[in-house]
Amino acid sequence: MEPALVKPAAAAAIREFIESDFARLWSIDQACFDHDLAYSRAELRFYMRLQGAFTLVSEAAGEILGFIVARAMRNRTGHVITIDVVAAARHKGIGRGLLLAAEERLVRCGCRSVTLETAVDNLAAIAFYQRHQYSIMRTIRAYYSNGLDALVMQKALPQ
């Protein structure tokens, strides 16, 4: 079943990350996640610089609305590291647009599937990913620094 189409925020565009975006992306990550789950500046930079990683930014009227960090790995699997959308822009198609753009990039990189982790208590994220054909594969016990478990979710990508 195809996900319901959601109209994106007016004039939102997806573009490549530029270094001057970093402070804003980190502040968005801090606002999106509990202090125990949000990345430190060093962690976010580390993930953004991994081999095969890319960062896409959603922007409208010069304002960053969200971003996604994903990675194409050598085993032809993609990995969504994080996806963050500012509270005021949620439920407007920003997350969907970022996720689809990342999946398209991963397909171009030769990935056959994509995985991600999300906290077991993040019901909104779990529902979002399930709407986009991600399935729960397993649970990783004490995945997060606060001891919270994570769900590993996966989606097959079109070839």
Question: Can you tag this structure with a few keywords?
Answer:
seven-stranded mixed sheet, Aminopeptidase, 159 residues, single chain, alpha+beta, disordered N terminus, 7 strands, 32% strand
Brief sketch in words of this structure:
This protein is of the alpha+beta class and 159 residues long. The chain has helices at 22-32, 41-48, 94-108, 123-131, and strands at 13-16, 53-60, 63-72, 77-85, 113-119, 135-140, 150-156.
Describe the structure.
This protein has helices at residues 22-32, 41-48, 94-108, 123-131, and strands at 13-16, 53-60, 63-72, 77-85, 113-119, 135-140, 150-156. It is of the alpha+beta class. It has one domain (13-156): Aminopeptidase.
Structural category is alpha+beta
Number of domains: 1
Number of DSSP E strands: 7
> What CATH architecture do you see?
3-Layer(aba) Sandwich
Question: Which helices and strands occur, and which strands form pairs?
Answer:
Blueprint: E1 13-16, H1 22-32, H2 41-48, E2 53-60, E3 63-72, E4 77-85, H3 94-108, E5 113-119, H4 123-131, E6 135-140, E7 150-156
Parallel strand pairs: 4-5
Antiparallel strand pairs: 1-2, 2-3, 3-4, 5-7, 6-7
